[in-house]
Design brief:
Strand content: 15-25%
Strand order of the largest sheet: 2-8-7-4-5
Largest sheet: 5 strands, mixed
CATH architecture of one domain: Sandwich
CATH class of one domain: Mainly Beta
Bound molecules: copper (II) ion
Shape: rod-shaped
CATH topology of one domain: Immunoglobulin-like
Amino acid sequence: MQIQTKLDIDITYKKSFKSYYNFMNLMIPILSFIYLLFTVTKSEEIIVGGNENRWTDGFAYVNWAKDIKFTVGDVLVFQYNKEKHDLYDVNRETFKSCNTSNGVNAVYNSGDDHVELKEAKEYWFICTFEQHCQLGMKFGINVSEAITATNSPVNSPINNSSMEHITKRFYYVIAIGILSLLITIL
Ligand SMILES: [Cu+2]
């Protein structure tokens, strides 16, 4: 009789233990999905040239920029020695010619410029010191519209950039799913 009771308690305990994990197994992917929805549009600060190079001469910014997807809301961070460099936001023609007598949208020279990409369009940046622009201290980017969870039409075509954002989060959800599955098995 005593043994029977102990066994009953054991089974009850195991059952509640199991149902706790079943609950978590369900909740984790759901919470992950909610997280995914709310983080798709998260903007990023992007250090131009990366941590090692920043904004300087003798670095191929065109190559650096071509591997990055820029979306509206991202902030470009230009850090440089302001005695040696500056930053001009220009149009395509001025980008090509490096002649700033016209086609200048904005001039920055603080040495730590944070440029928010407010519109889905092409942006062109150059340095006007010496021959820096001609030697490659310049780049252009194509900024795409950020997809938001709330206001994007369901059937709108998804651009590559936002797709990449979603894919990253998708892998995160898969990883969490596998993890919670392992917890349940163990
Ligand atoms: Cu320069």
